[in-house]
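Structure first, sequence second, as always.
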Protein backbone atom coordinates (compact mmCIF):
# COMPACT_ATOMS: atom_id res chain seq x y z
CA UNK A 1 0.00 0.00 0.00
CA UNK A 2 1.46 3.38 -1.03
CA UNK A 3 2.15 5.99 1.59
CA UNK A 4 -0.22 9.03 1.52
CA UNK A 5 1.25 12.10 -0.08
CA UNK A 6 2.51 14.58 2.51
CA UNK A 7 0.43 17.72 2.92
CA UNK A 8 2.55 20.83 2.23
CA UNK A 9 2.99 23.03 5.32
CA UNK A 10 1.56 25.98 3.40
CA UNK A 11 -1.82 24.21 3.19
CA UNK A 12 -2.02 22.78 6.69
CA UNK A 13 -3.68 25.71 8.47
CA UNK A 14 -5.91 27.43 5.91
CA UNK A 15 -8.47 26.68 3.21
CA UNK A 16 -7.17 26.44 -0.35
CA UNK A 17 -8.33 25.91 -3.91
CA UNK A 18 -7.55 22.96 -6.14
CA UNK A 19 -5.32 25.27 -8.18
CA UNK A 20 -3.35 26.25 -5.07
CA UNK A 21 -3.04 22.58 -4.15
CA UNK A 22 -1.57 21.74 -7.56
CA UNK A 23 0.87 24.64 -7.29
CA UNK A 24 2.00 23.35 -3.89
CA UNK A 25 2.54 19.87 -5.36
CA UNK A 26 -0.55 18.09 -4.03
CA UNK A 27 -2.17 15.77 -6.54
CA UNK A 28 -5.92 15.69 -7.32
CA UNK A 29 -6.01 12.06 -6.13
CA UNK A 30 -4.73 13.07 -2.69
CA UNK A 31 -7.52 15.63 -2.31
CA UNK A 32 -10.16 12.90 -2.66
CA UNK A 33 -9.11 11.20 0.57
CA UNK A 34 -10.63 11.60 4.03
CA UNK A 35 -7.80 13.89 5.11
CA UNK A 36 -9.62 16.81 3.47
CA UNK A 37 -13.01 18.43 3.83
CA UNK A 38 -14.75 20.13 0.90
CA UNK A 39 -16.11 23.55 1.85
CA UNK A 40 -17.19 24.87 -1.54
CA UNK A 41 -16.82 23.73 -5.08
CA UNK A 42 -13.08 23.78 -5.68
CA UNK A 43 -12.23 24.77 -2.07
CA UNK A 44 -11.03 22.33 0.59
CA UNK A 45 -9.37 22.35 3.99
CA UNK A 46 -7.60 19.76 6.09
CA UNK A 47 -10.22 17.67 7.87
CA UNK A 48 -8.68 18.10 11.32
CA UNK A 49 -8.92 21.91 11.30
CA UNK A 50 -11.69 23.56 13.32
CA UNK A 51 -14.22 25.35 11.12
CA UNK A 52 -14.07 28.75 12.79
CA UNK A 53 -15.82 31.83 11.46
CA UNK A 54 -12.51 33.21 10.24
CA UNK A 55 -11.75 30.03 8.31
CA UNK A 56 -15.21 29.96 6.71
CA UNK A 57 -14.85 33.59 5.64
CA UNK A 58 -11.39 32.98 4.18
CA UNK A 59 -12.71 29.95 2.29
CA UNK A 60 -15.54 31.92 0.70
CA UNK A 61 -13.22 34.75 -0.28
CA UNK A 62 -11.14 32.31 -2.32
CA UNK A 63 -13.93 32.03 -4.88
CA UNK A 64 -15.44 35.51 -4.61
CA UNK A 65 -14.23 38.36 -6.83
CA UNK A 66 -11.24 40.52 -5.88
CA UNK A 67 -12.31 43.50 -3.80
CA UNK A 68 -14.98 41.55 -1.90
CA UNK A 69 -15.18 42.22 1.85
CA UNK A 70 -17.04 40.65 4.77
CA UNK A 71 -19.85 42.89 5.99
CA UNK A 72 -22.97 43.11 8.17
CA UNK A 73 -23.44 40.51 10.88
CA UNK A 74 -20.40 38.59 9.60
CA UNK A 75 -18.17 41.62 10.05
CA UNK A 76 -19.60 42.24 13.52
CA UNK A 77 -18.75 38.66 14.48
CA UNK A 78 -15.22 39.09 13.17
CA UNK A 79 -15.00 42.21 15.35
CA UNK A 80 -16.05 40.08 18.34
CA UNK A 81 -19.82 40.59 18.64
CA UNK A 82 -22.17 37.69 17.93
CA UNK A 83 -25.52 39.34 17.31
CA UNK A 84 -28.54 38.62 15.16
CA UNK A 85 -30.11 35.37 14.04
CA UNK A 86 -28.72 35.22 10.50
CA UNK A 87 -25.74 32.86 10.54
CA UNK A 88 -25.05 33.10 6.82
CA UNK A 89 -21.84 34.76 5.67
CA UNK A 90 -22.41 38.26 4.29
CA UNK A 91 -20.09 39.94 1.81
CA UNK A 92 -20.15 43.11 -0.26
CA UNK A 93 -18.73 43.76 -3.72
CA UNK A 94 -19.18 45.94 -6.79
CA UNK A 95 -18.80 43.01 -9.17
CA UNK A 96 -21.92 41.70 -10.99
CA UNK A 97 -22.98 38.12 -11.76
CA UNK A 98 -21.99 36.33 -8.58
CA UNK A 99 -21.99 32.56 -8.40
CA UNK A 100 -24.36 30.98 -5.89
CA UNK A 101 -22.60 29.62 -2.80
CA UNK A 102 -24.46 27.75 -0.07
CA UNK A 103 -24.60 29.73 3.17
CA UNK A 104 -23.15 32.85 1.54
CA UNK A 105 -24.94 36.11 0.69
CA UNK A 106 -23.20 38.62 -1.60
CA UNK A 107 -24.54 42.17 -1.60
CA UNK A 108 -23.72 44.12 -4.73
CA UNK A 109 -23.08 47.87 -4.43
CA UNK A 110 -22.68 50.55 -7.06
CA UNK A 111 -19.74 52.04 -5.16
CA UNK A 112 -17.26 50.13 -3.05
CA UNK A 113 -17.93 50.02 0.68
CA UNK A 114 -15.34 51.41 3.07
CA UNK A 115 -13.14 48.51 4.12
CA UNK A 116 -10.03 47.56 6.05
CA UNK A 117 -8.01 44.45 6.85
CA UNK A 118 -8.90 42.73 10.12
CA UNK A 119 -6.45 39.94 10.92
CA UNK A 120 -5.72 39.82 7.22
CA UNK A 121 -9.38 39.55 6.21
CA UNK A 122 -10.99 42.34 4.14
CA UNK A 123 -13.91 43.62 6.18
CA UNK A 124 -16.07 46.74 6.08
CA UNK A 125 -15.08 49.46 8.55
CA UNK A 126 -16.98 49.49 11.86
CA UNK A 127 -19.07 52.47 10.77
CA UNK A 128 -19.93 50.89 7.42
CA UNK A 129 -20.58 47.58 9.15
CA UNK A 130 -23.19 49.11 11.46
CA UNK A 131 -25.12 50.49 8.48
CA UNK A 132 -24.86 47.25 6.50
CA UNK A 133 -25.95 45.12 9.49
CA UNK A 134 -28.85 47.49 10.21
CA UNK A 135 -30.63 46.16 7.13
CA UNK A 136 -31.55 42.99 9.00
CA UNK A 137 -30.91 43.51 12.72
CA UNK A 138 -33.67 44.40 15.16
CA UNK A 139 -33.54 47.80 16.86
CA UNK A 140 -32.23 46.21 20.06
CA UNK A 141 -29.44 44.40 18.22
CA UNK A 142 -28.54 47.56 16.32
CA UNK A 143 -28.10 49.45 19.60
CA UNK A 144 -26.08 46.55 21.02
CA UNK A 145 -23.80 46.78 17.99
CA UNK A 146 -23.30 50.54 18.35
CA UNK A 147 -22.59 50.29 22.08
CA UNK A 148 -20.16 47.42 21.46
CA UNK A 149 -18.19 49.14 18.71
CA UNK A 150 -17.69 52.17 20.94
CA UNK A 151 -16.74 50.14 24.02
CA UNK A 152 -14.20 48.11 22.04
CA UNK A 153 -12.74 51.39 20.71
CA UNK A 154 -13.39 50.26 17.15
CA UNK A 155 -15.42 53.43 16.60
CA UNK A 156 -16.44 56.52 18.53
CA UNK A 157 -19.82 58.08 19.10
CA UNK A 158 -18.71 60.94 16.85
CA UNK A 159 -17.49 58.71 14.02
CA UNK A 160 -20.68 56.62 14.04
CA UNK A 161 -22.97 59.66 14.13
CA UNK A 162 -21.09 61.47 11.38
CA UNK A 163 -21.06 58.40 9.16
CA UNK A 164 -24.79 57.65 9.42
CA UNK A 165 -25.59 61.31 8.77
CA UNK A 166 -23.53 61.63 5.60
CA UNK A 167 -24.12 58.32 3.78
CA UNK A 168 -27.24 57.26 1.91
CA UNK A 169 -26.75 53.49 1.83
CA UNK A 170 -29.54 50.98 2.26
CA UNK A 171 -30.02 50.48 6.00
CA UNK A 172 -28.82 53.92 7.06
CA UNK A 173 -32.25 55.12 8.24
CA UNK A 174 -32.44 52.12 10.58
CA UNK A 175 -28.89 52.86 11.76
CA UNK A 176 -29.82 56.49 12.44
CA UNK A 177 -32.71 55.41 14.63
CA UNK A 178 -30.42 53.09 16.58
CA UNK A 179 -27.86 55.84 17.09
CA UNK A 180 -30.43 57.83 19.04
CA UNK A 181 -30.17 55.09 21.68
CA UNK A 182 -26.47 54.22 21.49
CA UNK A 183 -24.51 55.30 24.56
CA UNK A 184 -20.89 55.52 25.63
CA UNK A 185 -19.48 53.62 28.65
CA UNK A 186 -21.63 50.51 28.03
CA UNK A 187 -19.46 47.50 28.75
CA UNK A 188 -21.49 44.48 27.67
CA UNK A 189 -24.42 43.51 25.42
CA UNK A 190 -26.45 42.46 28.46
CA UNK A 191 -26.06 45.94 29.94
CA UNK A 192 -27.50 47.32 26.70
CA UNK A 193 -30.43 44.92 26.85
CA UNK A 194 -31.12 45.76 30.50
CA UNK A 195 -31.08 49.50 29.79
CA UNK A 196 -33.38 49.14 26.77
CA UNK A 197 -35.79 46.96 28.76
CA UNK A 198 -36.23 49.91 31.11
CA UNK A 199 -36.31 52.64 28.46
CA UNK A 200 -38.74 50.89 26.12
CA UNK A 201 -41.09 50.31 29.07
CA UNK A 202 -41.20 54.14 29.26
CA UNK A 203 -39.36 54.52 32.54
CA UNK A 204 -36.61 57.14 32.97
CA UNK A 205 -33.32 56.21 31.32
CA UNK A 206 -30.50 55.27 33.69
CA UNK A 207 -26.90 56.32 33.02
CA UNK A 208 -24.33 53.60 32.29
CA UNK A 209 -21.12 53.08 34.27
CA UNK A 210 -20.78 56.41 36.06
CA UNK A 211 -17.92 56.66 38.55
CA UNK A 212 -19.49 57.50 41.90
CA UNK A 213 -17.64 59.40 44.57
CA UNK A 214 -18.78 59.87 48.14
CA UNK A 215 -16.99 62.05 50.69
CA UNK A 216 -14.38 62.78 48.02
CA UNK A 217 -13.47 59.12 47.43
CA UNK A 218 -14.30 56.69 44.66
CA UNK A 219 -16.94 54.19 45.79
CA UNK A 220 -18.18 52.26 42.76
CA UNK A 221 -19.03 52.32 39.07
CA UNK A 222 -22.42 50.57 38.81
CA UNK A 223 -23.71 49.27 35.49
CA UNK A 224 -26.66 51.68 35.54
CA UNK A 225 -27.60 54.49 37.91
CA UNK A 226 -30.33 57.00 38.66
CA UNK A 227 -28.31 59.75 40.26
CA UNK A 228 -31.39 61.77 41.22
CA UNK A 229 -32.95 58.85 43.08
CA UNK A 230 -29.66 57.29 44.26
CA UNK A 231 -30.53 53.94 42.71
CA UNK A 232 -27.97 51.58 41.17
CA UNK A 233 -28.92 48.69 38.88
CA UNK A 234 -26.29 45.99 38.54
CA UNK A 235 -26.20 43.04 36.13
CA UNK A 236 -24.53 39.91 37.47
CA UNK A 237 -23.63 37.50 34.69
CA UNK A 238 -22.46 33.97 35.26
CA UNK A 239 -18.80 35.05 35.49
CA UNK A 240 -19.63 36.96 38.68
CA UNK A 241 -20.56 33.67 40.33
CA UNK A 242 -17.75 31.59 38.81
CA UNK A 243 -15.04 33.98 40.00
CA UNK A 244 -14.99 34.08 43.84
CA UNK A 245 -12.70 37.11 43.90
CA UNK A 246 -15.02 39.05 41.58
CA UNK A 247 -18.01 38.04 43.68
CA UNK A 248 -16.29 39.25 46.83
CA UNK A 249 -15.49 42.61 45.23
CA UNK A 250 -19.11 42.98 44.08
CA UNK A 251 -20.45 42.39 47.58
CA UNK A 252 -18.09 44.88 49.19
CA UNK A 253 -18.81 47.52 46.56
CA UNK A 254 -22.55 47.16 47.03
CA UNK A 255 -22.24 47.32 50.80
CA UNK A 256 -20.31 50.57 50.40
CA UNK A 257 -23.03 52.01 48.14
CA UNK A 258 -25.77 51.05 50.58
CA UNK A 259 -23.82 52.60 53.45
CA UNK A 260 -24.01 55.91 51.59
CA UNK A 261 -27.74 55.58 51.09
CA UNK A 262 -27.88 54.03 47.64
CA UNK A 263 -30.52 51.48 46.72
CA UNK A 264 -28.87 48.62 44.80
CA UNK A 265 -30.91 46.35 42.51
CA UNK A 266 -29.07 43.23 41.36
CA UNK A 267 -30.29 41.55 38.18
CA UNK A 268 -28.88 38.08 37.53
CA UNK A 269 -28.68 36.14 34.28
CA UNK A 270 -31.57 34.02 35.56
CA UNK A 271 -33.53 37.15 36.44
CA UNK A 272 -33.20 38.41 32.86
CA UNK A 273 -35.38 35.46 31.86
CA UNK A 274 -38.23 37.28 33.64
CA UNK A 275 -38.00 40.68 31.94
CA UNK A 276 -41.37 42.02 33.13
CA UNK A 277 -40.32 41.38 36.71
CA UNK A 278 -37.01 43.19 36.11
CA UNK A 279 -38.79 46.35 34.98
CA UNK A 280 -41.29 46.26 37.83
CA UNK A 281 -38.45 45.93 40.34
CA UNK A 282 -36.84 49.06 38.94
CA UNK A 283 -40.18 50.89 38.92
CA UNK A 284 -40.95 50.03 42.54
CA UNK A 285 -37.49 51.19 43.62
CA UNK A 286 -38.00 54.47 41.77
CA UNK A 287 -41.37 54.98 43.45
CA UNK A 288 -39.83 54.30 46.86
CA UNK A 289 -37.36 57.11 46.14
CA UNK A 290 -39.94 59.68 45.08
CA UNK A 291 -40.61 58.96 41.40
CA UNK A 292 -44.19 59.88 40.53
CA UNK A 293 -44.21 59.09 36.81
CA UNK A 294 -46.37 56.53 35.02
CA UNK A 295 -46.11 52.81 35.54
CA UNK A 296 -44.26 50.64 32.99
CA UNK A 297 -45.94 50.19 29.63
CA UNK A 298 -45.34 46.96 27.73
CA UNK A 299 -46.45 47.02 24.11
CA UNK A 300 -46.24 44.21 21.56
CA UNK A 301 -42.78 45.25 20.37
CA UNK A 302 -41.47 45.27 23.93
CA UNK A 303 -42.71 41.73 24.40
CA UNK A 304 -41.22 40.68 21.06
CA UNK A 305 -37.80 42.11 21.89
CA UNK A 306 -37.50 41.09 25.53
CA UNK A 307 -39.89 38.31 26.48
CA UNK A 308 -37.25 35.71 25.55
CA UNK A 309 -34.24 37.79 26.69
Amino acid sequence: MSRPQAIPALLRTRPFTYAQARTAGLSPEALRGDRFRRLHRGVVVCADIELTLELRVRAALLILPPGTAATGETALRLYGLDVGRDQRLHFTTTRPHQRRIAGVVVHRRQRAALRQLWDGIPVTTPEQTLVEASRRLSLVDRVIAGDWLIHQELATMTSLRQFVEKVHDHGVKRARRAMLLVRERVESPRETVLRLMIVFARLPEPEPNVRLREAGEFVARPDLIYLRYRIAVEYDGLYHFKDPAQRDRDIKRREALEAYGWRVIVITAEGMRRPYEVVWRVYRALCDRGYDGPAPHFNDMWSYWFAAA
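Margin note: The longest strand covers residues 231-236.
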